[in-house]
Structure formats: C-alpha cells, structure tokens
Specification:
The chain is an alpha+beta fold. It has two helices and five strands. Helix content is 41%, strand content 15%. The longest helix is centred in the N-terminal third of the chain and has 52 residues, at 16-67.
C-alpha cells in the first residue's frame, strides 16, 4: 500500500488565501495613491490662485506708486500711460482671464473699492485677497 504525505503540496500555484492577501494589499496601496494625487491637485490649484492674486496685487501697488491713483479696471494694469512725457507700464503682462474659472477661481479688481483685488472661487463669493489670510484655500 502506498502512503500519502498530506503535509507536502506537489502541485505548483497559490492558494486562495495567498491571492486574497495580495489583492487586499494592492487595494490599500491604490487607495493611498488616489488620495495623494487628489490632494496634490488641490494644493496646485491653491498655489496657482495665490500666485495669480499676488501678481495682480503687486501690479496694483506698482501702478499706484507710479501714477498716484488706483487702477479703474484690470485693463489699466495691462496698458500703458504717459507720465511727464515718459510711457510707463504695463504693470501686468496679461490679465487673469475668465478661463481660470475652470481651475476653480477668478481674479478681478473690485470696482467699488478701487485697488482691491478680489478672488472669486467655486465655494464662496468674491472675497478680498489678503496674502496673510490665504483666501485661495477653499478651492476644490
């Protein structure tokens, strides 16, 4: 009579438990990657919003320093002016366009309070930009 050794597998391959463990580990790693990529995209939008708003804010300050008054609109920052026979400007190479709304925000000048930069995002109405409070943080 032939004896059977039940403790040794003679066939190659993986057991169902081993496959399930590998699948669970891969699912956990995939969830971590998806979360990290989503956070990176949000951080990039916030950084772009802050950089754009700060650029407009700096252009407004330069305009005011040279001409002694606040710009009436965004076009004034991208145009030129004559000061004592000298052409000055532009203070901003290109105005932020409405296409930025696809990134979750629009930057504009406040027409009521001249010289104030507004940030409008997809979760709140227009708010005055202040680099110390970082109003671009609510972009999603």
């Amino acid at each position: 009579m032939k004896e059977r050794n039940l403790g040794i597998r003679s066939e190659g391959g993986f057991t169902l438990i081993e496959l399930l463990i590998v699948i669970v580990i891969l699912a956990i790693l995939a969830a971590i990657v998806v979360f990290a990529v989503g956070t990176t995209t949000t951080n990039a939008k916030e950084s772009a919003c802050n950089a754009d708003a700060k650029s407009v804010e700096t252009a407004v300050e330069a305009y005011k320093a040279q001409l002694g008054k606040e710009p009436a609109n965004m076009a004034a920052l991208t145009g030129t002016a004559t000061l004592n026979g000298v052409i000055v400007g532009p203070w901003l190479r290109q105005a932020p366009s409405a296409t930025l709304a696809s990134n979750g925000y629009v930057i504009s000048l406040n027409t009521t309070t001249l010289g104030e930069v507004d940030v409008t995002n997809n979760t709140a109405g227009p708010t005055s930009y202040d680099s110390s409070t970082n109003l671009c943080n609510s972009i999603t």
